[in-house]
Specification:
419 residues, mainly alpha, Growth Hormone, Chain: A, two-stranded antiparallel ribbon, 16 helices, 1% strand, AcetylCoA_trans_1-like, transmembrane helix, transport, MFS
Length: 419
């Protein structure tokens, strides 16, 4: 890291509760759109008879999340200028405006217009990816090490809450009131949930001079970043490979669109928030490394059960749905709190938007490739073999993650965080 850099510090006291609440609301807002895109949309398309291979292409909408490291340094340099105040609120305001307009146009178009759906949701994904750079950087800067656990609980819990709303409420509204009602409601929620961050971040005042220039080169020079990218790739591949195929599988087992929406909503909220709080407590109690490994074991068991359920029709649908929700909500949230806590500790506060973005881009790249492959594999191998392979992958990831994180969970050297 560059030595002797002056770091801008808040010139006034910032409440940890206020900061956690502000970033939590924005994480929920971003994830509402994600829930619509990666859970709600596949279910709607499947009910309309779209084949699984096409549904798998929905993962390509995540391309901006995989590539946002390319413009993260520019965003960070604008957000943290050499002189002057933090511009996080301006970045977020512009991005959210693009999302709301895109969803407004999308709701006015027919749900069967796949090219338009993909194009508009890709624009919205580009905007939210840019917003996320600013939000993550703001979080790492303003959360003390003591409050990181709450910050990551808000991040992961907010992600599941938003995804549950975006998937569950969206599907129920589409089923009861149509495509336009569901899409426009999501647009309104994104705008409302972003307000706490905009109000909180716009009042930030900084003194001093920033001499560190955020860059990818500075990030990739650090061994913590390179190790983190390896951990992210292995862990995301094991946890998310089967995610996009869960809702289509339930639809194919005879579960109605509204029921999938209700389960994805209510159950995901409860399990996701419970898993994130449990993960936060376990990280503080036992550390990051054991929690990362522990979360993969129940994930493998759940995927093995889904494989068995696809092989025989003797297993009740309610058991299948419950297991699927536990794997994609509670267990995943539990592990991701540990993963994001480590990412935050490895990030330099002087360019946190760049460092944290690199980790998330690995998430996006693996999710993109794995999601597209998942649709192809499920289509040609069948659900039973597909879920069995995903379970084996989760088991193999346990020793890989344990070795990769051994002795590498310390804090990143760099500018001090708020006390």
């Amino acid at each position: 890291m560059a030595a002797g850099a002056k770091t801008a510090r808040p010139s006034w006291h910032r409440s940890s509760i206020g900061t956690v609440g502000a970033i939590g609301g924005l994480y929920v807002a971003q994830s509402v759109l994600g829930g619509l895109t990666w859970v709600g949309l596949p279910a709607v398309l499947r009910e309309q008879g779209t084949d699984l291979s096409t549904i798998g292409l929905v993962s390509l909408i995540a391309l901006p999340w995989a590539l946002k490291f390319l413009w993260a340094p520019a965003v960070e340099r604008y957000r943290l200028p050499h002189h002057g105040g933090d511009r996080s609120a301006l970045v977020v305001l512009a991005g959210i405006a693009v999302v709301v307009v895109s969803l407004g146009i999308l709701g006015a178009l027919p749900a069967a217009g796949l090219p338009w759906i993909f194009a508009l949701l890709s624009i919205a994904a580009l905007a939210t990816a840019t917003v996320d750079i600013a939000c993550d950087g703001y979080a790492v800067q303003n959360l003390s090490k003591a409050s990181q656990g709450w910050g990551n609980t808000a991040q992961v819990g907010g992600a599941y809450l938003g995804s549950a709303i975006g998937a569950g409420l969206f599907l129920v509204l589409v089923d009861r009131g149509g495509w336009a009602l569901g899409t426009w409601t999501v647009a309104a929620l994104v705008a409302l949930l972003s307000l706490p961050f905009l109000l909180h971040a716009r009042t930030a005042r900084f003194t001093g001079e920033r001499t560190h220039l955020p860059s990818l080169k500075a990030a990739l020079k650090r061994p913590e970043i390179r190790r983190g990218l390896l951990v992210a790739g292995v862990y995301i591949l094991a946890q998310k490979t089967s995610f996009n195929m869960v809702a289509p599988y339930l639809i194919d087992r005879g579960v109605s669109l509204a029921t999938v929406g209700l389960l994805s909503g209510t159950a995901s909220i409860v399990l996701g928030i419970a898993g994130s709080f449990a993960g936060g407590w376990c990280v503080r109690r036992f550390g990051v490394r054991p929690v990362l490994a522990l979360a993969l074991l129940p994930q493998a068991l759940a995927l093995g059960f889904l494989s068995l359920s696809a092989f025989t029709e003797a297993i009740p649908v309610w058991m299948i749905a419950g297991t699927a929700l536990m794997a994609t909500s509670g267990v995943m949230a539990f592990g991701f709190v540990a993963l994001y806590t480590q990412f935050m500790r490895w990030s330099d506060p002087r360019q946190a938007g760049v460092d944290f973005t690199l980790f998330q881009c690995m998430d996006g790249l693996v999710s993109l490739g794995g999601g597209a492959a998942a649709g192809f594999l499920a289509q040609h191998l069948g659900y039973d073999n597909f879920f069995a392979a995903a379970a084996m992958l989760a088991l193999l990831a346990v020793p890989a993650v344990a070795v990769a994180t051994q002795g590498g969970t310390g804090a990143a050297p760099g500018a001090p965080r708020p006390a």
